[in-house]
Amino acid sequence: MTKYVFKRLGLMLVTFIIITMITFLLIRVLPREMPTDKVQRAAIEERWEALGYNEPLMTQFFIYVKNIVTKWDFGTSWYVSYRTPAAKVLGDRLLPTVLINFYSMIVSVPIGILFGIYAAIRKNKWDDSLISTLVMVFISVPSYVYAFLVQYFLYFKLGWLPLTMYSLADAGGSYFTGKMFVSMIPAIIALSFGSIAGYTRFVRAELTEALTSEYMLLARAKGLTRAQATARHALKNAFVPILPSILSEFVGLLGGSMIIEQIFAVPGVGQLYIKSLNLLDYDVFMMDCVFYTFIGLLAGIVMDLSYGFIDPRIRMGEK
Q: Under a CB-based contact definition with an 8 Å cutoff, are residues 288 and 90 in contact?
């Protein structure tokens, strides 16, 4: 297990460096957009010259990595937030992203698991067929379609919820007020549809396999009722692959959703990614890409490693 962990961490580091380098080279190829203000223009040119941004691309990349390793300096924003460290710009956007995704996870995980359990128990019945059909529909539809439907019905038709998320000034200066939470509900609902469908399908598939296994027949032969055998044996074994996916999604909370955040005006990490690309704010864009890459790789490795800790029968790295 220890050997496997170090191997995965090494592969994660190599993958992280490769993705970061490719992203850096591609964004640097794009033409620089200089502001018309002479003072601001001179400050940017001076900063870029000091950082070696007029050198060849690979030299620029090594300077960028060196500044991160030695100074923890991810660069400076010149367009999104003038003369603000890129790390601070990203940090200021984390909380709304985490809250939106955390609330969505609280809603989608239990509902998806309950629907999946019900569908597995009612396998091949009319309600199982209905749930399976709805799951395929909800998984196939992109999240932005749900966003537009939520806005249309809950805002335009019924007027129950606001069109977009409130700003801090409108919500009382905090992300934890009741008014702010109400404005987050449309984004939470739009994010939850796909997650609920995914968990329903996953749980149904795993639990259906567990219910038809030999140890379930043995449990029934010993005198346990179907409900007792399902609760004591089938659910426990079916959740071995399900729990790692929940842990992975929990780690991925920081990643956010670019499309949903853009539609509902959530001032989060996803919206920052699009804004920095449109404005060609190099350092903020790279900060965002580095962050997204790290979270994605971390979620994957947490999911893989958690199998070995949840199920003692799994011994990763052994032949």
A: yes
The pLDDT of residue 174? 82
- Quick check: 237 and 208 in contact, CB under 8 A? no
Nearest to 275 by CA among 24, 78, 59, 68: 78
In degrees, rounded to 5, the angle at the alpha carbon of residue 14 between the alpha carbons of residues 10 and 19 is: 145
Is residue 295 within 8 A of residue 252, CB to CB? The reply is yes
pTM: 0.77
CA distance 65 to 43: 22
**pLDDT at residue 315, as a whole number:** 57
Q: Could you tell me which residues come within 8 angstroms of residue 131 by beta carbon, excluding any fewer than 6 positions away? A: 115, 118, 119, 200, 204
Query: Which comes out higher in pLDDT, residue 224 or 153?
Result: 153
What does the alpha-carbon distance between residue 4 and residue 56 come to, in Å, rounded to a whole number? 38
Percent of the chain with pLDDT over 70: 89
Residues 6 or more apart whose Cβ sits within 8 Å of residue 60: 24, 28, 51, 52, 53
d(CA 11, CA 41): 41
Q: Decide: 20 and 36 in contact? Cβ < 8 Å.
A: no
Provide the pLDDT confidence category of residue 82 given band limits of 50, 70 and 90: confident
Give the whole-angstrom CA distance, residue 188 versus residue 207: 27
Say which residues have a Cβ less than 8 Å from residue 89's Cβ, sequence separation at least 6.
77, 80, 81, 272, 284, 287
Confidence of residue 79 (pLDDT cuts 50, 70, 90): confident
The C-alpha atoms of residue 261 and residue 232 are separated, in whole angstroms, by 41
Question: At residue 145, does pLDDT exceed 70?
Answer: yes
For helices 86-121 and 178-211, angle between their N-to-C axes, nearest 10 degrees: 40
Going by C-beta distance under 8 Å and a sequence separation of 6 or more, which residues neighbour residue 259?
Answer: 142, 143, 144, 147, 270
Phi/psi at 212 (5° precision): -100, 10
The strand ranges marked E within 100-162 are none
Block residue for tokens 């359990």 = 117
